[in-house]
From TrEMBL:
Residues 1-63 form the HTH luxR-type domain. Keywords: DNA-binding, Transcription, Transcription regulation. It comes from Lutibacter holmesii. PROSITE patterns: HTH_LUXR_1, HTH_LUXR_2. CDD domains: LuxR_C_like. This is Helix-turn-helix transcriptional regulator. The keyword Zinc does not apply. The lineage of its organism: Bacteria, Pseudomonadati, Bacteroidota, Flavobacteriia, Flavobacteriales. InterPro entries: Sig_transdc_resp-reg_C-effctor, Tscrpt_reg_LuxR_C, WH-like_DNA-bd_sf.
Amino acid sequence: MKTTLSKTELKVASYISEGMISKEIADKMCVSVNTVRTHTRSIRRKWAAKNIADITRIFILSLPNIVCLLNNKQLENEY
């Protein structure tokens, strides 16, 4: 991952990579479409993504790192 995303941004990137549009993401997260668009802009800026396809590609390529980070956080919470 080029720059670490917040938990919310990571969730939005995940939904984008599943092919969801802003309205669907907003409904699922119980936020406004404008909020989703703001998170999407932030993701694009942090990852230097030109479009949604770039966000999807970077998210998929980053999955091993994301899983590793999540596993490390779970281990930290167990102690």
